[in-house]
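Annex B. Sample input.
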Amino acid sequence: MPSPPPPGDVHPYLRAATAGIRHHARALNRSPQPEPVARTHLDVLHAHLTELQQLFDQLAETTRPPHPSAGRHLAAAHTRLWQATAEIHTAFHLLPAASADSTECRPDRFLEGPPVLTICQRHLTAGHIVRRKTTPTDLNRPHTTACVR
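Annex B, continued. Sample output.
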C-alpha cells in the first residue's frame, strides 16, 4: 500500500498554477516599460478564472452537506468569481481588436466559422451554469464578509 503524499504535495496542480501566476505577476512588475494589457492576456485570465469558478462550484457542492456554513461561503466565492469573469469579459471587448469588426461578441462572423472556444463562448457557457444555481439578486449583491454560522 503506497504511503500518503507529504502535506506540501497534496494538490500539486493547484500549487503549480499558483506559482505560475505569481511568476507572471513578478515578470510584469519587473519590466521597465510595462505594456498595456492585450486581449489575448485577458482571454487567458478569463479561462483561468472560469476554471477556478468550476472548481469552487464543485467544492461548494461537496462541502455543503456536512458543513453548510462553509459550503455557503464557497458558493459565495463561486459567485464572486463569476463577477470577476464578467468584468474581464467586458474589458476584453473594450480593448482594441486586430480588426474593427471583431470588437463585439459575434463568433458567427468568422470566415472559417467560430473558434473551438472563444472567450464569448466560454463566458456564455459559464453564465448558463451560474444562472442555474444563483439568483439574480445574489449575482448583483456586493461582497459581504458577514460570518454566518
